[in-house]
Design goal:
This protein is an all-alpha fold. Helix content is 72%, strand content 1%.
Length: 292
């Protein structure tokens, strides 16, 4: 049994996050600048009914997230921008239905994260692991949704989504990135809420809940189910066949374990902060799906 006391480990983690805050500040422009540039390029040369519908839906979604206090105002604005990028990358122009885009998988990510964050919140607050009541920060939104949004920006514009091989090649990585983000959030929140003693993924030593790189059986199962829910949501909306859905889910689970491995090594050594680890794990999931 590791002799590390939970209070000491949390203090070290807080200090490490404060010292590495520059990584979160660097991540924001890395994600938001290409996303901001990609939106007008996607909306040109003409304003279409599909674009107008997506803008209204994504704006309403960002407002709802803020009203529910699931995110700070800057984070809600970042979420609106990234969601709009995902929508523009997956909608059929000029009159495509919003249903056949990545909006519903994006909504599934929000609902899964929202429910998991509030699951047994009182217990997580007592042990000092609950998320801030102000909601997620903009850097957290960029870390979880950034890779999917960049995939949306990279999607070939004005090509048929269902028949273009270039578009289809990026849809599965996009969904894998969203599924990994859902799996990571749900596994962490549920694992901390249910309790038990997690183990460090690299050594199997028992450590306090909330330790970077520590995994638990309930959390891993919950995260795997969350990824499955998101991928199943994408099947009818983006017309994923069973093989593509399996690739997306498998890549997401590989990204989930990569997140734990990076957390147990680079994050615990003070080289990366949590936002950087989350962004890298979604990128790994997307890359594995692309290669597959």
């Amino acid at each position: 049994m590791d002799r590390t006391r939970p209070g000491d480990d949390r203090r070290r983690k807080t200090e490490r996050e404060r010292r590495l805050r520059w990584q979160s500040r660097l991540l924001l422009p890395f994600v938001l600048l290409p996303a901001t540039a990609g939106v007008p390029l996607r909306m040109l040369p003409v304003w279409t009914p599909a674009t107008a519908k997506g803008l209204a839906i994504c704006a309403a979604f960002g407002l709802l997230v803020w009203l529910l206090r699931a995110a700070t105002p800057p984070a809600a604005l970042a979420g609106f921008l990234l969601t709009f990028c995902i929508y523009l990358g997956t909608v059929e122009q000029p009159n495509g239905s919003w249903f056949h885009t990545a909006l519903l998988p994006g909504l599934a990510l929000f609902l899964l994260a929202f429910a998991a964050t509030r699951f047994r919140r009182g217990r997580k607050e007592r042990i000092g692991l609950a998320e801030s009541r102000r909601g997620r920060a903009a850097s957290q939104v960029a870390a979880n949704m950034g890779v999917a949004a960049l995939a949306g920006v990279a999607m070939p514009a004005h090509l048929p989504l269902l028949s273009s091989p270039h578009s289809r090649a990026l849809i599965v990585p996009l969904i894998a990135a969203l599924a990994e983000a859902a799996a990571d959030t749900v596994s962490s929140e549920v694992g901390q809420a249910i309790g038990g003693v997690p183990v460090l993924i690299t050594t199997l030593k028992r450590l306090p809940p909330g330790t970077d790189g520590a995994v638990s059986f309930p959390g891993t199962v919950a995260g795997s189910l969350a990824a499955a829910v998101l991928v199943l949501t994408a099947m009818p909306t983006l017309h994923l066949d069973p093989g593509q859905a399996t690739v997306a889910w498998t890549a997401a689970i590989c990204g989930l374990f990569a997140d734990s491995i990076i957390g147990a090594t680079l994050e615990r050594r003070g080289w990366l902060n949590n936002d950087a680890v989350n962004f890298l794990s979604t990128a790994i999931a997307a890359l594995l799906a692309l290669l597959a």
